Structure formats: structure tokens, C-alpha cells
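Human: If only I could read C-alpha cells as easily as an amino acid sequence. Take your time, and here it is.
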Amino acid sequence: MKLLWRDVATGMGFTEGPIATRDGIVFTSINRGKLFSADYAGGIREVCETGGGPNGLAYNRDGVIFVAQNGGGVVPTKSTLPCSPSIQSVSKVGKVAVISDGYFAPNDTAFGPDGRLYFSDPRGSTKAEKPAPGRVWAFDTATGEREVLADDMMHPNGIAFTEDGETLLVTETLRHRIVRFRKNAEGWRRDGVFAELPIGEPDGLAFDRKGRLWCAASAGDVIIVFEPDGKPLHILELGPSFPTNLCFGGPEMATLYVTAPKGGRLIAAEVDTPGIALF
């Protein structure tokens, strides 16, 4: 597999968290404390300033964006807006609100089949002298109720659900692997390791319609494509990029968008298999 990459946006700081909306790709600039949109028509605009370090994003059917806000302690931020580690909401008109706090440093997030917001919550930077385990949460945005799914993962990071909603995958960056959770009558339970990375450290995740998992391997400057059984299928070299996250977008969900902080970029390429519709 060989993809033809193009720059969608450059010079945007430490880019992360791309999500496909109706009009384009919204992504974060962690070190600027802002959200930007790359419209499908070609324009780049600022969505809002969240303060701190906005990381992963999720988007609901009402047009509200939810932000995994690390508080600005992971990557130094230029924003002067006061902000602590939290989950924020951004309305369609760009109004920012904190809807849940008291976390380590929320990183990535996705809606689950039950309508709850699932997110990873590592303890800050992967370069910490004495790293400690982080957590994986499920959060009901309507009631405010929270559930801890795991509290022993070493830098839980990217998060994604299979199309049938029966399996949840979470990258464990410091152990260079992707951990699998399965749903049963009692809720989500750990179910072994989905894959070990052959290169780089795992970050963001996205599924295509063949059930293949696309993983941003940040330190390796590559995207790794895994078969549904966890076997590596393709290693796509990007050159100097440090890919942090990725999503499928465009009218047919047949374009892969990747945030590449080296150069402050959002890059894109057409793919042979579209991505799945997210919950």
C-alpha cells in the first residue's frame, strides 16, 4: 500500500485530535490551546480557544464537540486562559464549558455504543521520570456519572470502538501495545492484548470498513495498519512527522487525515477502503 500525502494545514503548532464533522476536519493545537477547522472547501479557521492543552475530540449528533483537556501540563501552552485537566464541551457557536474535572490529563476520547463518552486519562507526559499508571473512563454527559474501566495502564492513549460496538481498543503507549476490552453482561472487561507494535509508540486509532485498524505510531513516524486479528498488514512511512492521531473523513469517508506535529501539520491521503461511521 502506498498513499499520496498532501498538506491540508501547516504551521498550526502541536496538532492532535482530528474528527470529521459535516463541513470538514476539526483538530486541536495543544500548545496554542485552540481548536481549528480545515473545511472541505479548503479554508482553515479558528473554532475556539479552550485554554490549556486540548487533545482528543469527539462529536455528537447535536453538533457539540467534546474535548479531552490535559490542562496544559503535557506540552507547554501559549494560551493564557486558566484551565485544568477536564472534559470540555464546545457548542456550535464556539462557546467552551467545563463539564467534568478532577482528572490526571485526559488524552483521547470517543463515544461508545451506549452513548457514553469514553476517554483515556494518563498521568501527563510519557517522558516522566517515574511514570505511574493512568485510567480509562466512561462518562455519561447527560447525568455526569463516571465509571473507571481500568486504572493500571501505562499511559493509556488512543481509543476506538469496532463497528459492531462489541470491542473497545486502547493504546498503551509506554508498553508499545494495543489493549482489548470486550463487552459482556457486567460491562467492559479486559480481554488481552490486541497487538504489539513492531515500531514506534501507539497513539491515535481509527477503523476502516474492512475491520482493519489504523494506528498512528508517533515516535516511529509511521502509520501501522493491522488486520482484524491484530496482525500488522502495512507500515506506512511518513517521514519527519511524529503522527499523533488520525481519522477518516470527506463525503465518502475515503480520505485519511493525520495530525503531524512536526511542521504543525494536518495531512491527508485517499485510501482504498472508507472508514466506519463513529458512534
